[in-house]
Specification:
Helix content: 25-40%
Largest sheet: 7 strands, parallel
Shape: elongated
Structural class: alpha/beta
Number of helices: 6
Radius of gyration: 19 Å
Order of helices and strands: EHEEEHEHEHEHEEEEHE
Strand content: 25-35%
Distance between the termini: 24 Å
């Protein structure tokens, strides 16, 4: 399987290079990053320079590259795996429109465990529709997007489970908490890979759920599953939920 890897010089890009090299069935035929990596395969500073053909493009760069990445995949008519977070509503809409032409795998977290974690949190929130829900997410100090894509996935899953009733409140915006609010609080410290905690309080009892990522390999292995999955699909928008 031939892969074009974008964001090859970043933390996750480096992890993906290692995962792919040990897979036994995949290879990087082109690596893309503004900071040119030193690899045996062809390396480019911009996606527009890539001439190699591939079975799939995988992105671990930055959400600001969404348009050029999507345009490239559509032009090449190859599947796309987007593993970045922090997309604006406009960028998300651009991805959705492109999925009418090619298969795209897009998810704020590539972990199956996180997907199950989110489904449990949503079920509990649905059972207690007026409970207070607070999400606390902690990541390494170098993570730029706040809140995390996973925290937003949790909040939106809870909101959907409540039929859209309530607000998603980031930090202290919106003033005092209102009944039914879904709060998100972000912490950036040290080299923490990723921790997400959901606290649900009914006034009479509290339920706390927590997921911890111990290694970035959690995400690279999930991405490899996504690569194999999306290469078998027709046009459309897919995520980890489709594994279930």
């Amino acid at each position: 399987m031939k892969i074009i890897l974008c964001g090859a010089s970043g933390r996750m890009g480096q992890e993906m290079l290692s995962e792919i090299s040990h897979s036994g069935y995949a290879e990087v035929v082109a690596a893309v990053d503004r900071r040119l990596p030193s690899l045996e395969c062809p390396c480019y500073g911009d996606l527009s320079e890539v001439l190699e053909n591939a079975d799939v493009a995988v992105d671990f760069s930055h959400h600001s590259a969404t348009k050029s990445l999507v345009d490239f995949a559509v032009a090449k008519q190859i599947p796309l795996v987007i593993a970045t977070t922090g997309q604006t509503p406009e960028e998300r809409e651009y991805i959705s429109r492109a999925a009418e032409n090619i298969p795209i795998f897009f998810c704020g977290n590539m972990s199956l465990g996180v997907t199950l974690f989110i489904s449990v949190a949503a079920k509990i929130a649905q059972t207690f529709p007026y409970a207070d829900v607070e999400i606390i997410e902690t990541h390494h100090k170098g993570k730029s997007d706040i809140p995390s894509g996973t925290a937003l996935m949790i909040a939106n899953a809870v909101l959907d489970a409540r039929n859209g009733e309530g607000r998603i409140v980031v930090g202290r915006q919106g003033g005092l908490r209102q009944k039914g609010d879904i709060g998100i609080n972000s912490v950036r410290i040290g080299d923490i890979v990723g921790e997400h905690e959901v606290r649900i309080n009914t006034g009479f009892q509290s339920i706390t759920l927590k997921h911890e990522a111990h290694s970035r390999a959690l995400f690279t292995k999930g991405t490899m599953h996504a690569i194999r999955f999306i290469c078998t699909k027709r046009k459309g928008l897919y995520s980890v939920k489709d594994f279930l």
